Amino acid sequence: METIKRFVRRTLLDSWREADAQADTAGTGELDWRPVVILVTTAVTLTLARYFGNNATFSQLVPFDKALYTRDQWDLMARAWWSGTRVIAYVVIPMITIVLMPGERIRDYYVSFKGFGRHLWIYVGLYLVVLPFVLLVATQDQFLSTYPFYKYSNQSLGHFLRWQVLYAAQFMALEFFFRGYMLKGLSHKFGYGAVFVMVVPYCMIHYPKPLPETLGAILAGVALGTLSMRTRSIWGGVLIHVGVALTMDWLAVAQCPPPDEGPCQSR
């Protein structure tokens, strides 16, 4: 118990105090335009991803034609569109704004691998903490109605792995955007409060998902945000996100019909 208390004190409270102290000394009396750029970019990119990164948009651009594609091929293309639009919205557009902001460098936005191995045990521990809850929700109809997003994941290992690559790319982009771009861009102004500013839109992008997962995103956002701020790296968050997602999809596919009976069905 004492070890847990020391971990919470050193990882959370000390990180928040350090970030707050930096914010207190960052003022120069001039207009600070960086939070404006970060927050406006956040609003714009989330809007673009929501309205143009979905299946409806892809269906309009590439209507399904059974003479050209099988259904599973077309559906995977739609998922690639979804993943690709997230990479553009969450990585490419923010990186352009970083380059255009005087004095800002992409490498400062928590993309370093330095110290990753030293903090790996923390993320492994978080995964083990989350795992029992994943196993619990994997038995619920709402979970099986949602996962896997790519319903043909049950057709073969190749189908499953191709989808996981697209899924992982989306999580890398998501972690950079929320735990790198937003946190680094806002922490000098809001201190530890930047974690909670980031958590609001991060929670909201989970609204189409099951309620327990959306509520869990609040805690996950605070934990991963604090750790990213502490370690100056998003990669632990990428690792745990991909690990949990892979586990959830594997559990969902295990309950799908056999391949010869068709794709996974929403319940």
Please tell me how large the radius of gyration is: 20 Å
Q: Would you count the extended β strands for me?
A: 0
Q: Number of DSSP helices?
A: 10
Give the ordered list of helices and strands: HHHHHHHHHH
* Largest β sheet strand count, sense and barrel closure: none
Structural class: mainly alpha
Percent in strands: under 5%
Report what the structure shows:
The chain is built from ten helices and no strands. The chain has helices spanning 2-24, 34-52, 55-61, 71-100, 116-137, 141-146, 157-190, 193-204, 211-231, 235-253.
Helices, strands, pairings?
Layout: H1 2-24, H2 34-52, H3 55-61, H4 71-100, H5 116-137, H6 141-146, H7 157-190, H8 193-204, H9 211-231, H10 235-253
Notable features of this structure?
single chain, 267 residues, mainly alpha, 10 helices
Task: Describe the structure in brief.
With 267 residues, the protein is mainly α. The protein is built from ten helices and no strands. Helix 4 packs parallel to helix 7 and helix 7 runs antiparallel to helix 8.
